[in-house]
Amino acid sequence: MHLAIVCDGVHPYVMGGMQRHTYYLVKYLSRMGVKITLVHFNMSNLDIQKLEVFSEQERVYIENIVLEFPKGDGLPGHYVRASYKYSCMVYDLLKDRMAEFDFIYSKGFSAWKMIEEKKKNPSAFPPIGVKFHGYEMFQKQADTKSLLKSYLLRRPVRWISLNADYVFSYGSKITEIIKSLGVKTSSVIEIPAGIEKEWIRESDLQVNPTRQFVYLGRYERRKGIEELNRAIEKLSADKLSFEFHFIGPFTEAQRLKIPGVYYHGSITDNASIRSILDKADFLVCPSWSEGMPNVILEGMSRACAIIATDVGATSIMLAQDNGLTVETGDIDDLVKQLKQAINMNEAEILSFKLASLMKVKEKFVYERILNKFVDSIQTIIKK
Q1: What's the pLDDT band for 16 if we cut at 50, 70, 90?
Q2: CB proximity list for 175: less than 8 A, separation 6 or greater
Q3: Is 290 helix (H, G, I), strand (E, B) or coil?
Q4: pLDDT tens digits for 189-212?
Q5: What's the CATH code of the domain at 268?
Q6: Could you tell me if 39 and 115 lie in one domain?
Q7: Distance separating alpha carbons of residues 24 and 7, to the nearest angstrom
Q8: Cα–Cα distance measured from residue 42 to residue 45, given in angstroms and rounded to the nearest whole number
Q9: Is 168 exposed, middle or buried (0-12, 13-18, 19+ CB in 10 A)?
Q10: Residue 187 shares a structural domain with residue 58
Q11: N vs C: which end of the chain shows fewer Cβ within 10 Å?
Q12: In sequence order, what E strands does 17-151 have?
């Protein structure tokens, strides 16, 4: 099987949750012997031509094609315009090679031009599937600025979704959004996100005498960090005993000056991240919009209970057996759930932690998930 994967970057050449998903997709498909033509770009200081983040064995199956993402003009909608130009570059690069590919898998806007051309001459193209991860532009927005940005994205995302052959979804509310756009159920392929076996903790579950929480991510409006800061301030004012640990690039001005709140900065070493997660009781993810947050899977794999908003595909990971759900953007409810976690007894928290760990093992290991992905593509090819 030969796949063309055209995308908006691969971790660590481009940073972000979508790019990490692409990295693991390419990594494990190549291990399975799937031939991949990978079209992407670089926003790092790494030598992308070497593709050294993949093993020598994996690189045997990867054709590495690097483009330069067009520069935006700085005017409203510049990202959409630049993304369309990038899709034209991708199409021009691959248009004479369509017969080589069994399937084209596209992240974001990367196949926009290709889909336009396929509408003119369907028989000249293989099936095209697109993935927009969380369809965050159709989810609840934190403020007016975010809402305006989402409006600029909605029209092209809707068009691409409706005109692609297949649309990939993590499931849950993301599938609901995709169907609400008019995409047929038969065109939706649900494949959840996953995690590597190496992340999964084997034993030694414990609960701290002083409740420990962790937030892993950027200081970004849609991540609910402002609501989380307000909630922590209220907990501190109530003289409750807890620790809160932040992993991510927070400036001094963005940091709370409260006893028991610790900032570890950006950490790229997985062993160091796992060490902090292993000491935590709860991972907190109070986002306004999400796809299927990898940080929740990472927390669950290290036996963290979860406190999160029910957005995107979060409900696939979080249920009553392994954590607490927060109303989106509701500071008072976030305080309520954090207080409930602080006041829980050890047996309740251990039950949550064990449920998180077992759920990851049973449902979200990459090998299992990508077998399902390959089976889905092979079924399409045989039609």
Answers
A1: confident
A2: 169, 188, 190
A3: coil
A4: 999 999 999 999 987 898 999 999
A5: 3.40.50.2000
A6: yes
A7: 13
A8: 8
A9: buried
A10: yes
A11: C
A12: 35-41, 62-67, 103-107, 128-131
Domain residues for the domain of 47 are 2-194+365-382
CA atoms within 13 A of residue 236's CA, in its CB half-sphere: 14
The pLDDT of residue 75? 83
> In one letter, which amino acid is 234?
K
Question: In this structure, are 373 and 303 located in the same domain?
Answer: no
Model confidence pLDDT, tens digit, residues 59-108: 999 999 999 999 988 788 899 999 999 999 999 999 999 999 999 999 99
Domain count, the chain: 2
- 134 with 170: CB under 8 angstroms? yes
Q: What's the predicted TM-score (pTM) here?
A: 0.94
- CA dist 322 and 351 (Å) reads 7
Identify the helix (H) or strand (E) that includes residue 216: strand 211-216
Give yes or no: residues 255 and 117 share one domain: no
Per the listing, tokens 């935006």 go with: 72
Per DSSP, the residues of 263-285 read E------HHHHHHHHHH-SEEEE
For CA atoms 10, 12, 18, 21, the dihedral sign is positive
- Tokens 């510049």 correspond to 78
- Contact in structure between 119 and 128 (CB atoms under 8 Å): no
Query: Which pair of tokens denotes residue 275?
Result: 């060490």
Burial class (CB in 10 A: 0-12, 13-18, 19+), 238: exposed
State which amino acid sits at residue 244.
Answer: F
Q: At what angle do helices 112-120 and 144-163 cross, to 10 degrees?
A: 30
The amino acid present at 126, given as its one-letter code, is: P
